[in-house]
Amino acid sequence: MKMRVIAGEFKGHPILAVPNQKTRPTTDKVKEALFQMIGPFFGGGRALDLFAGSGNLGIEAMSRGMEHVTFVDHQYHAIQTIKHNIQSLNLQSRSEVYRNDAFRAIKAAGKRNKVYNYIFLDPPYRKASFDKLLSALSEHGVLEDRCIVVCEHASEEQLPDSFESYTMLRQEDYGSLTQITIYRFDK
């Protein structure tokens, strides 16, 4: 699958996909809609891209003005692909890449006092509990007040309107398979 940066500083630059069938890249159509929902451009900020795959969402955020992105994936091939994509855009100084389980990465970020303005959660469909992920993010203190959390999930997986300190801002279907749910975290 061919992917590219669709807006901002690196518009049109190709992004390599992970060379296996274990990841499901976010399509350009869904990616464009997602960034229109959360704000097409950023004036800085820090993001955490969990289940990062190729780094597609985090790189798009940096192209649109995000200051720094932490990429996390547990697959070796995904990490190699993210590193290649970051290096091809010379974004090493604005990013960190970790091969880790999502929950361990959240705990490690909390221990290092890392906090984020945006979180991208795009796990393999029906393979991760969003309730547990959202709880871990707040429990380990990695969310800035009013942090935006973007959840990409299967359409049949319905996420709640609110959860703990999270309030749903928007939910949209894209085709018959994909749904985007956006939450705001309020301390």
Q: Strands, helices and their partners?
A:
Elements lengths: L2 E2 L9 E2 L12 H11 L7 E5 L5 H8 L4 E6 L2 H13 L6 E5 L2 H10 L4 E6 L8 H10 L3 E12 L7 E2 L2 E9 L3 E8 L2
Parallel strand pairs: 3-4, 3-6, 4-5, 6-7
Antiparallel strand pairs: 1-2, 7-10, 8-9, 9-10
Explain how this protein is built.
The protein is of the alpha/beta class. Helices cover 28% and strands 30% of the residues. The chain contains five helices and ten strands; from the N terminus they run ββαβαβαβαβαββββ. The chain has helices at 28-38, 56-63, 76-88, 102-111, 130-139; strands spanning 3-4, 14-15, 46-50, 68-73, 95-99, 116-121, 143-154, 162-163, 166-174, 178-185. Strands 5-4-3-6-7-10-9-8 form an eight-stranded mixed beta sheet. Strands 1-2 form a two-stranded antiparallel sheet. α3 (76-88) links the parallel β4 and β5 (95-99). The radius of gyration is 15 Å and the shape is globular. The model has no long low-confidence stretch (mean pLDDT 93).
User: Total helix count?
Assistant: 5
In terms of quaternary structure, the protein is: single chain
Major beta sheet summary? 8 strands, mixed
* Stretches with pLDDT under 50, minimum 5 residues: none
Strand order of the largest sheet: 5-4-3-6-7-10-9-8
Measured by DSSP, the beta-strand proportion falls in 25-35%
Could you give the order of the helices and strands?
Answer: EEHEHEHEHEHEEEE
Rg measurement, Å: 15 Å
Structural class by helix and strand composition:
alpha/beta
Mean pLDDT: 93
Q: Ends: how far apart?
A: 39 Å
Helix content: 25-40%
